[in-house]
Amino acid sequence: MPEFAPDLMQDIRSRFAHVDACPFQGPRVFFENAGGALTLNSAVETSAKFAAIPDNQGRDNPAAQALVKIIDRAKSDMALFFSAHGGQFFVGESGTELTFRLIRTAAMGSGAGSIIGSTVEHPASRSAARHWAEQAGKPYISVPHDDATGAVTPAAYAALMTPDVRVATILHTSPVTGIANDVAGISAAIRAVAPDAFIIVDGIQHASHGRIDIAGYDIDGYVISPYKVFSRHGYGVAWVSDRMTALPLEQLIDGPRASWEMGTRDTGAYATFSDVVQYFEWLGTQHTDSDDREQRIRAAGGAIHAHEQVLTHAMLRGTGNLPGLAELPGVTILGGADNPRREGLVCFALDHVPAVEIVEKLNAQGIRTHIRKADHYSGNILSPLGLTSAVRVSLCHYNTLTEVSAFLAAMKDIAARAK
């Protein structure tokens, strides 16, 4: 499947706020999507609408009843988007906060045993797992990822699995390299040795690229940050299995036993996620004739993946007479230049130009990227490669080949002038 046709591309871009200009900088190319994707215009409108409503849920009045229906509809939409055929959804402060909460619940509520996770993980899951392993008196097992591919494999988990594993964490896609891991395969490797382990997945980076299939993963928790999938800041979304809900939960005394929600919910958060789901469904109608909503969302995910592959291939191998990043002298492409598991992101370093200088020069030309440093966020990926920093270029399906060309032209000049 090729990149989106021009008319469809224009239609897609028209649905996002600030798609080609920053309200502070002016015209720019937005290649900082892993730090937070562009926001749907519909989500902006919905946020304003619900911010103005004074009523809360749970009251005996028409407004409160309407808010409850909106939340219920959003949870139904979430089930479609995530392809979840059971369990429940709820929102929290952020993806990181929800990841900590799920891991805390599993670590403290399960029996004696160990917790397993991998070195490729974002600190949202790795820090939570290590902290609550210590608090629960459970040994932490660290599965090494492969530095060359930027991935961790089912075999790597299997090699360190023991029957007493009670909690396992998996990173779906790395926000540093853009390389996705085989969630279903890793889950199967865990279940083969410890079938009752609670498996929790960080899907924060993966979500904007579509194709989430909770029903096919055999897991117990999945977390995303909606501001990275075209909604807004200020909330996270979590899915939990029924067996997770059966664990002892932090709850109000005498409150509903199966509820993960605390306090008054932000109806606007739920409603803006419905906007995201409706957008995916619309995009899916451009690629399938099916009337089934879940099939439309799946079609959208497939189309997004195909379009982004075209863009990342051009970024790495060049387009027109412009060389790709992989063709620049002294370049290191994190995860390798030909990694089939790459999702909409290229992270690279040049041995003769500091990453901070590249990001500054690109920004001066209206091309927004981001530096990743060997700190508590990215050191687990960069330090083993001998890198102190790298440039992250992250895109989404509303980006274009024209924008990639502008980036490559700028990089050609930056690399040449530095030499």
TrEMBL record:
Span of domain Aminotransferase class V: 30-407
Keyword Transferase in record: yes
Keyword Cytoplasm found: no
Alphabetical UniProt keywords: Aminotransferase, Pyridoxal phosphate, Transferase
Protein name: Aminotransferase, putative
A Gene Ontology molecular function term of the record: transaminase activity
Pfam families assigned: Aminotran_5
Annotated organism of origin: Roseobacter denitrificans (strain ATCC 33942 / OCh 114) (Erythrobacter sp. (strain OCh 114))
